[in-house]
Specification:
1 helix; alpha+beta; flat; 55 residues
Amino acid sequence: MELTTREGCWQIWVCPERKIVSFHQEAGFQRLAFHSREQFLRCMEWYTERQYRYQ
């Protein structure tokens, strides 16, 4: 899996209305940034449990 990293943080973009997580910037999506791999992985587990789709 390729992730967008800038300045030492992991970034994803989320659209809660459509239940989508993107690893690339998307218009209208909320950006989330993580400064640790553990935080990022916990967040991915949370979205997976809620059946979000990844793109």
